[in-house]
Amino acid sequence: MPAKIACLTALLLLLNGCSSIEPWVKPYERAHLADPIMSFSADPASAAYMHHIYVVREGARGAEGSAGGGCGCN
Amino acid sequence: MQKAARVAAVVATNMLHRYKKLTAFIFLAGTGIQLTAGVLPEDRADALYHSYDGGGVEVTGPSILIRKGDKKRFSVSGNYYADSISSASIDVITQGSPYTEQRTQKSIAVDYLHADTIFSLGHTNSDESDYLSDTTNFSISQSLFGDLTTVTMGFSRGRDDVLKNDASGFKRNVDRNQYQISLSQILTKNLIMLVNYENVTEEGFLNNPYRSVRYDNGSGGTGTQPEKYPGTRTSNAIATRFKYYLPYRAAVGAGYRFFTDDWEIDAHTFELDYRHPLKKHWDFDLSYRFYTQSDAEFYSDFFPFRNPQTFFGRDKELSEFTNHSIGLGVSYEFLENGWNFISKAKASFKYNHFWYEYDNYRDLTQGGTVGEEPLYEFEADVIQLFISVWY
């Protein structure tokens, strides 16, 4: 377990070192992406409840979380 | 009295046991990793009423989610969720008698923003008469490449106590670790992609203490014995989702998830959704979801004799089955000019209908030759009503 965490943290730090890459979608071009209708889970309480329904009734689990929009528009 | 307790136990098989074990997943999906690159979540409160009705099971209750931050570095959220369960499911009918059950779940989480990084720490507790669960979650979210990319890594550790209502001395444990990596990527001015990977390992008492399997007793009849599951389970799931902004201000989404575990369950999930705003106040949602899975290696609806193998189970969630669901939603935004401390508010209604069809789990209530009863199927309705306020 500590090894997994260390690897993941190292990966994140390495990626951070690449942050000088020129973004191909400029901040002023992200109006559509910032629109609330583009959210993967606009209502967190509702999304959590539906995930609960799925997990209770199905054998599969995991990877259904939403990491948000990620457009940094605000 | 004992029979009633056994029934409850069986129902617990499908509901309780899973409810508890799912607590950690609820946390990750619902309140833990809803992060946007370098931006703390909005201050908002949601009061939700939920209702599930299907397969002889009714579950209703509230969910209250409140989030408040200093709009700079910290944001704290708390969630209270309750289930009131009334069950006469097929498990209960065929192995016990109907029962009622209460479950409460409480979560608290704090997010801390530093530069383009968000650190999140949370804890969730779930409490039932025969299942207790505590899960602690930690995640880091980092925006990269001019905020085109957000990478989130999460870890949670859970510990459950499995009890048995008709056996006061019965107590077993489950330990669970979850590792999650999420990547959110802007692809074009109108298209965004999300990729999630999650590994889950569990160790301990993983089967339901109430449920039994059935077997051929060799004299033309059927015998039963308690299920026996492996003591460990490791699963991997990877999912990708896309959201595209249409030319006339509407959004269409698509998603796929692949799941596999060392119990030999493989599952595929496909999702489509469409959101259409109308005028200033209304949003309409339409969604479709398809799910299919293979059965666990130790699952059988009817075993040939007692103790047929090392592990054996007859949980319909471990059988081979598919389900379809459609979803409809409408929301109305009001107080958009603010009122008192409220900046805006929204009222929402959501409805989902599910069709479940099992390929090797049989409906014993229908009678017929043992082992050749009709395959089980049922439908379910899910209703959500909620009010959201921003402040």
Give short descriptive properties of this protein.
heterodimer; A: 74 residues; mainly alpha; 3 helices; flat; B: 391 residues; 16-stranded antiparallel beta barrel; two-stranded antiparallel sheet; 9% helix; 62% strand; globular
H/E element order of chain A: HHH
Low-confidence stretches of chain A: 66-74
- Low-confidence segments of chain B, ≥5 residues, pLDDT <50? 1-34
- Please tell me the overall pLDDT of chain B: 89
What is the number of E strands of chain B?
A: 18
As a percent range, the share of helical residues of chain B equals under 10%
Structural class of chain B: mainly beta
Order of helices and strands of chain B: HHEEEHEEEEEEEEEEEEEEE
- Biggest pleated-sheet summary of chain B: 16 strands, antiparallel, barrel
> How large, in whole angstroms, is the Cα Rg of chain A?
17 Å
Descriptive account of the structure:
The complex is a heterodimer of chains A (74) and B (391). Chain A is an all-alpha fold and 74 residues long. Helix content of chain A is 45%, strand content 0%. Chain A contains three helices and no strands. The model of chain A is unreliable at 66-74 (pLDDT under 50). In chain B, helix 1 (2-14) runs parallel beside helix 2. The radius of gyration of chain B is 22 Å and the shape is globular. The interface between A and B is large, with 56 and 101 residues.
